[in-house]
Structure formats: structure tokens, C-alpha cells
Amino acid sequence: MRILFSGDVAWNTGREALxxxxxxxxxxxxxxDFTLINCENAAHGKGMTDKIFSxxxxxGVDAMTSGNHIWDxxxxxxTLDAETRVFRPANYPPSxxxxxxxxxxxxxxxxGILNLEGQVFLPPIDSPFTCADTLIDELKxxxxxxxxxxxxxxxxxxxxxxxxxxxxxxxxxxxxxxxxHVQTADERIMPxxxxxxxxxxMTGGHExxxxxxxxxxxxxxxxxxxxxxxxxxxxxxxxxxxxEVDEVSGLAVKIERVQIDTGELSQ
Length: 267
Fold this sequence. Notes:
By secondary structure, the protein is an alpha/beta fold. Helix content is 28%, strand content 27%. The strands form two sheets. Strands 1, 2, 3, 4, 11, 12 and 13 form a seven-stranded mixed beta sheet that branches. The relative contact order is 0.18.
């Protein structure tokens, strides 16, 4: 099984970069069984909309994970509740809209999805570790003991992300970090067969600060006053990972970082 995952797709620059990059990646690397993205920053940096959801589906995206910013557009809550192809972190209270785990299917193949959010430097929510234990068992009871499972761990601290990698090693196919928008160079197959990377990075404008223009961010750092963030429209690039999974064991055999400068491709 081959899985393509894009790190946080940020702002309109990220949506455009994704649309440019996906055909290029598919030509270069071949077809994928599942194409996944983190969508929480897709609508002007915060949240999602129905229109953008439809755009991503049209690009061939099979499922979308998210994080703390998925709550920033309340008009999307109805879609969160109704759609089985978009996920929010599972360790928010059950009363919150949407779902944090599930099984997606494509061409006869099944993939478990588990979306979690960290506790360090983020809003207080339930433990992602104990939540993972419960929901992995539930996914395997539905899809089989060796069901491939992809985990998006949306967290700030690399220590917490590494802890999750070791906690789930051998129980899931992949633990992929999101949220920081900076791709890390620590991709590896862990001792018991789980693919891991602390952060898949960001698909968006990289000549700025985490997808936001330098000019709009600096007043906050210099003066400490609120300011309006604007998208970085330069340095557009795709960041993500390709993961290969042995479908017999449900464990990973390869993880590869992907970086594509889509600004050059569009010229």
C-alpha cells in the first residue's frame, strides 16, 4: 500500500501549490492507494469551508485530517458531522462535531485513520495517548488486526510527538506529525515497524513565516501588538511524505520526505 500525505495545506497559496504538485508527484512516483492531506489551515489560514472541501476531493484527495484550527469556521461543522472523509482530533470531547477516526476504502483497499492532538502548548483536551489506545483497538475490531492505520498527530512539541511514535510503534502503520509547518528531517521506520516523522511540513508559501507573509507578522514580534496575518504568496512549495506499507502485517517498509517547489513549476 502506498500513501501520499501532505502536511498542513495553508491559505490559498497552499491550495494552489497542492493542485500543481499532485499531478507532478503522481507522474514521478506513480499512483497512490490513498492521498491524504491536513486541511485545518486551508481557508484563509484558519479552518475549512464546503467549497474548499469539494476542491480537494476533485484533486483526488481521499481523506483530510485537521487540528485545533478546524473549529475556526463554524459553518463547516455540519460537513464535519456528515462527511466520513474529513476528520478532527479524536481527543476532543464527544460532543464536538465530527469524528476523529474511521476506515476509508478505495479500490478494495482499506486504511484506518486516527487524528489526534497534543496537549503540550495547546488547548487542554483529553490525553491523546489513552485515546489512541481505545480507538486503535476499535479500528482493528472493525477492519482486522493487521489493518493499516495512519495517525496524524497534530502537536507542538517534538518531545510529545516522539513519545507518541514510540507509544504506537508496532501498533499502527505511521505516526506523522503536523502543526508546526516546518518539515523535519527525522523520518524513519521505528524498531517495531511504524513509519515516523515529527512534522510533515507545510504546503504553502515558504518565503514567509509558517505560511504567513513576513511583513504582516513582524509587527507582532517587534511591538507585541495584535496584527492581521496575510498569506505568503511567494516560495510556494509542497511538503509531505510517501509511506509504503506491507498490507499483510500492516506495518511500514518505507517513508520518504517530499519537497516540491511549485512556484518554479507554475512559471
